Amino acid sequence: MNEWRDEVAAWPVANPVVTCASLSVAGIPSNFVADPFIYVQGGTLFLFYETKNSITSQGDIGVAKSNDKGATWQQLGIALDEDWHLSYPYVFNYLGQIYMMPESSQKGELCLYRALNFPLQWTLEKVLAKRPLVDSFIINHAGEYWLFGSDHSGFGTRKNGQLEIWYSSSPLGPWKPHKKNPIYNVDKSVGARNGGRPFSYDGNLYRVGQDCGETYGRRVRIFKVEVLTREDYKEVEVPLGFEESNKGPNAWNGARHHHLDVQQLSSGRWIAVMDGDRVPSGDPVHRFILGSASFAAVTAVVVVLGVLHGIVKCIVPLNWRAPHFPWKRNDALLGWDRSNLFSSKVRRFCSRLNRVPLSVRGKVKPGTWAGKLVLAVIFLVGSASMCTGVKYFYGGNGAEEPYPLNGSYSQFTLLTMTYDARLWNLKMYVRHYSRCSSVKEIIVVWNKGTPPRSGDLDSAVPVRIRVEDKNSLNNRFKKDPLIKTRAVLELDDDIMMACDDIERGFSAWRQHPDRIVGFYPRLARGSPLKYRGEKYARHHEGYNMILTGAAFVDHAVAFERYWSNKAEAGRELVDRYFNCEDVLLNYLYANASSSQTAEYVRPAWAIDTSKFTGVAISRNTNEHYKIRSNCLLRFSEMYGGIAGRKWEFDRRKDGWDS
């Protein structure tokens, strides 16, 4: 939480910190990563995890290290690769030796490995059990060692709902079964299957379990162990204190999280690693089935339309007909006829099917309104089925994911300014943008009227309503020490864009945090200076301003410049015209640097919702442009000209090649 790293342009660093993509970039082919365990060695954190090799489709054990409290990770390689699937790499220390006990249920054994050259070289130390145990761990408690694991191979065992315990005087065994085994054989949602490393807190032992009720690995549950002896075991569930995201597939753990490792460092601080997924288990198969069904429906619709128009007919090939014999039939010929019974039935079916269009077309006449309506409905069903099939086959999982930079993710604060007459816009705005992946918080600058309560807004992130004493556009750039991110997206409450466009803009800003990075370019030119729309900038293939109605800025820099003594005259002009605050900020940036100070990102689409509500601030476009032209002249006198600057559009990024 709140760890900033300049070297990876993350202010702050955001989850996830390790993905299958980060492994692939490091030369380790991977489809997914899961089951993370931490091993602490001095000031270095080592992260062991399951990674599924995208070439062999087998689970291996990967390892990474961090020297900055887990904010960034360096991939070291594959620590353990066997001929069978490996996962759940439980790593621990015993008598100065480092051991790993991964799950190897596919082999039917529970194996213990010892580090020869930590962390990448291991040797098989011992087979602890000739049983296909899954997600097992060993702990030292009350003077004895305890082995927890699940065996789903037994008759009557409920998968993901079974748990057994064994005890020993040493983690190397031999192991004796607990008197109450199986401890659990219950519904898979209870949390019987282990979901990470147990931990101690305030003298109490806690076990992490998996809830697999809705889907495999839906969430983790925490259980406080009240009794653990050779004869008895009792635990009670306690709150995890982890708030699940409401961002759906846009969150890295929006669909499930099934593993947790919590440890206290020597400094007294706590650190935890958790895995997560954007989609439920089996999502690719689910999408394939629905996509296939949709395309099958399209085929059926095409056939129906063809039959109704007499284009499609059922024809049986001539070679399916039984041969004609002019002489007397014998038993052999009767056998031939029986073998052709199926083809005879097919011919009769096709004959009847070919008569269907005549009777149907007699009722559904394409030339009538009723006939056209039926055909239109059939066509719409086919079109909808086609779109659905394309969506499930080629549309991915529906997530609008963030864009990593140098392997790391970050977050930004979304800030908008509004008043009571635009509450409808605000509700739709908050509901949509709060579910964008990198949004950490939404700040609503309330300029006029009675503000709503935060609970009135459907938001997946915290919403802070900042009520202002004065109705001023300058409030948009007011210094706010409560902002927890370096980046602020200034976004008008009447602009709707896709989360993917927002994420692309954020990625561009992270590469150039000294610029105003946004979605609405303008080119101020002419003598005298004249304010014009985006078409003018595109026609002249360049821009020198980005409107801050939709733009990323470094709030510490931007707000400091805006409220400096130098900008006082400009702020007064903004209050006088009730306009031009975005133009002023562009001039302040240009005045502070001779290099490029603005960057354009082209959105796939953008909608101005004020057109539907009638509460647009600038209803008269001509008057609005006239005022802004005056602002250009005045700001040029105050802060120097901007007309001499011009940055060309990136044709490749903006899709101009087409």
Throw out a few tags for this protein.
658 residues; five-stranded antiparallel sheet; transmembrane helix; single chain; globular; manganese; disulfide bond; GINT1_N; 27% strand
What is the topology, as strand order, of the major beta sheet?
Answer: 24-23-22-25-30-27-31
Instruction: Give the uncertain stretches in residue-range form.
Output: none
Derived structural class: alpha+beta
Count every beta strand, where a strand is a DSSP E run of 2 or more residues.
32
Radius of gyration: 33 Å
Largest sheet: number of strands, sense, barrel closure: 7 strands, mixed
Oligomer: single chain
Cofactor: Mn(2+)
Family: Belongs to the glycosyltransferase 64 family.
Domain Glycosyl transferase: 412-641
Transmembrane segments: 288-312, 373-394
What's the gist of this structure?
The chain is of the alpha+beta class.
Characterization of this structure:
This protein is an alpha+beta fold. It is built from 14 helices and 32 strands. A hairpin with a 7-residue loop joins strand 16 (204-211) and strand 17. The radius of gyration is 33 Å and the shape is globular. The mean pLDDT is 89. It comes from Salix udensis. This is Glucosamine inositolphosphorylceramide transferase 1.
Element layout with pairings:
Blueprint: E1 13-14, H1 20-25, E2 33-41, E3 44-52, E4 59-66, E5 74-80, E6 87-94, E7 97-103, E8 110-117, E9 121-129, E10 133-141, E11 144-151, E12 162-168, E13 176-177, E14 184-185, E15 199-201, E16 204-211, E17 219-228, E18 233-238, E19 260-264, E20 270-274, H2 283-308, H3 331-339, H4 341-363, H5 369-394, E21 409-410, E22 412-418, H6 423-433, E23 439-446, E24 463-467, E25 487-491, E26 495-497, H7 499-511, E27 516-518, E28 521-522, H8 534-539, E29 545-546, E30 550-554, H9 555-562, H10 568-577, H11 581-592, E31 598-600, E32 606-608, H12 610-613, H13 621-639, H14 651-654
Parallel strand pairs: 22-23, 22-25, 23-24, 27-31
Antiparallel strand pairs: 1-21, 2-3, 3-4, 4-5, 6-7, 7-8, 8-9, 10-11, 11-12, 12-13, 12-14, 15-16, 16-17, 17-18, 19-20, 25-30, 26-32, 27-30, 28-29
Subcellular location: Membrane
Membrane topology: Multi-pass membrane protein
Pfam family, one: GINT1_N
